[in-house]
Design brief:
Blueprint (H helix, E strand, L loop, with lengths): L1 E4 L5 H9 L4 E5 L10 H14 L4 E6 L4 H11 L3 E5 L4 H10 L3 E6 L15 E5 L12 H5 L1 H7 L4 E2 L8 H8 L3 E4 L4 E3 L2 E2 L1 H15 L3 H6 L1
Parallel strand pairs: 1-2, 1-8, 2-3, 3-4, 4-5, 5-6, 6-7, 7-8
Antiparallel strand pairs: 9-10
Helix pairs in contact: 1-2, 3-4, 7-8
The structure holds the ligand O=C(O)c1ccccc1NCC(=O)[C@H](O)[C@H](O)COP(=O)(O)O.
Catalytic activity: N-(5-phospho-beta-D-ribosyl)anthranilate = 1-(2-carboxyphenylamino)-1-deoxy-D-ribulose 5-phosphate
Protein name: N-(5'-phosphoribosyl)anthranilate isomerase
EC number: 5.3.1.24
Length: about 220
Amino acid sequence: MYLKICGLRDPAHAAHAARLGADAVGVVMSPRSPRHANRTEAAAVIAAARAEAPAIDTALVVNTLPAAEAAALAAELGFDVLQLHGPYDAADFADARRILPRIWRATSLASEPDLRAGDRAEERLLLDGATPGSGETWDVRPLGSDPALRARIGDGWILAGGLSPENVAEAVSHARPWGVDVSSGVESAPGVKDPGRIARFIAAARAAGGPGRGATAAS
Ligand SMILES: O=C(O)c1ccccc1NCC(=O)[C@H](O)[C@H](O)COP(=O)(O)O
């Protein structure tokens, strides 16, 4: 199970997540988000995570910047991945991929109920709730129980939206994702990460979904 902790601004929290075996850390650069990080904070998060876990993935998360501009920013700051939320089209993704090869497409079945397998040109699909970063739970059960939906989604997708230490095991058992992503569920207040909740989330997700980067590196 691949684990991503998103919305980090404090390098100490990035180091903590990396030390506990998170496979990825995410930084949101979106001015209206309570998790918005500036360039200095973003660079510090990347450095802190890599100091603990050199192979960790670092993702820049955006929803308002033009795709090519976002990819250029991600490359300039040294991110591995660009995660695009919002109404970006195929041309936007192609533009971004020319600048940074690893692009993740975040979407929601609320806005795209007919999600097609042909939409999977990007490295990863991240299936989120209706409002990114809101912490709102959504019904993930059809992801595991609807074969047609599952076929459309394909493999290697990441479940997000409303996950927490308390519900991640149940969500994983229903949806059977390749990976999980959390932000609000490991916070004590919007934009304020809670190290204890990060630790509990990683432990609960590992118990439910199996090992990730640490075990892979050792094998
Ligand atoms: O987190 C935000 O504030 C945010 C703002 C704008 C675009 C995306 C944003 N977050 C995206 C994420 O990757 C979140 O981790 C994902 O939506 C899950 O959020 P949550 O329900 O808070 O766990």
